[in-house]
Amino acid sequence: MRSRELRFGLGVFVLSLGVLLVRFLVPRPVGMADNGDGWRLLCDLGGRHPELKSEYYVHFSYGPGAACKSDYISSQAWLDWLASKAGTLLGSSAQLNLLVLGAITCVLVAVGVTAAVLALDLSVRNRVIAAVLLLLVMADSAFFGYFASVLSEGAGFLGMLLTAGGLLLMHRTGAWRYWGAALTVVGALIGLNAKSQTLLLIPLFLLALVLVRPLGKRGWARWALPLGVLVLVGAGTAVVQSQGDPANAEYREANMFHVVFDSIVDGKHDTDADLAALGLPPSAKKFIGKGWWEARPWTDADYNAYSDQISRRNVVRYYAGHPKRTLQILQQGAVDTLTARPPRLGSFSETSGLPPMAQEFRVPVFSGLSALVAPLGLVVLVPVWLLTAWAGVRAFRRRAREYGIVVFFLLLFAVGQFGLSALGEGVEGVKHQLLTLFPTCLAFVFAALSLLPRPAPPVEDDVEAEPVTEVFDAFREPERSAFR
What we know:
Layout: H1 3-25, H2 39-45, E1 61-62, H3 76-89, E2 96-97, H4 98-119, H5 124-138, H6 153-169, H7 175-192, H8 201-211, H9 220-241, H10 252-264, H11 271-277, H12 292-295, H13 301-306, H14 312-321, H15 323-339, H16 365-372, H17 378-397, H18 401-424, H19 429-432, H20 434-450
Antiparallel strand pairs: 1-2
Helix pairs in contact: 1-4, 2-3, 3-4, 4-5, 4-6, 5-20, 6-7, 6-18, 6-20, 7-9, 8-18, 15-18, 17-18, 17-20, 18-20
């Protein structure tokens, strides 16, 4: 590692951290209010869920509460635990202080930005541009608030950034490659285990590791480090997922209920025909537009008679037989993706003096642009994906495979998550599609950076040839005969 590069990296880290902390705390702290799911993470910490309407304001301090049990699995719990211990060391009496959590996450985000910038083979000026673009994504108002919340999206965003930075560093040689491997392990463990949806990253992560190839490395020298990363991440993920409810199996029926009665049978299309196609009686209309916990269908005798129709297989069969309706649902999913901001989740504390559910718009660059074109849905989203994919293919063809690997790692997850959320969840579409919008924005940034010119390799100065010394005949030694 050259000292000049280390100084540059330290400068990027310090400036990034400073920008993120100012963005977080000035003029008042911002976070993301709880949509009602926060208790699943607070249980593990013994935190008390507030009695107030949780989505109105951000509760930056959670006191101790009665013990409860949750099988919910999320790497966000690791960050919460770290924040809880750090808060105790700093003298906080709270079981979880979101100000401490936000500060810790800002440090980790700054590490991810620095790693990605140092890994890019760009000039200093273009590296600065890369840092600015990455910070604009991470600090965007649609994403940043989750870094100080009891929700698990923040862990997903952080994990994807750290994994991308680590994969890029693994293409370098020397000590950088090993630092990249360590960062990849940390990022992948956080990102893959953030939510049940992020488990989709597993095959993409495996493919990315297979494609990693540092310059000049062949055979065992090429495969040893990626194999070690794969073993650590695979074993760690297996252990984590075995500790609770893998893939949130307990919510499968609830998700299908929402798909059927919020998405497919929404009361705005041919309700009777859709119910018949799903094998449901006309009396099922009473559940349209109602949530699982509001309707409490398991207490309804009629529902129990046809509950076996509220299944993935039945929903997939409906989609296969109704392509036009499926396209309409995908269009709504694209609108939700580009909308970016759930309207009912506040960004400020109750002591801020702002009205309930007030939201901050300090850095609305990517989310602001996407919200402007949100009504167009797929008309905008698909071309953005295609343009990003073109840049990724170009990177592979121009021997800049590190860009291509990261671009497709993020892009393919975004596309897969979009389909799963639009067709398989049916409720809170804007919030759930944040895991589509974030990797789309991050992939777009790396795709744009791949178009920047690489610095020319240093050219060694030609050694000036010594002038030929003329030898006069008078001083020339006589030639000796070959024969004696």
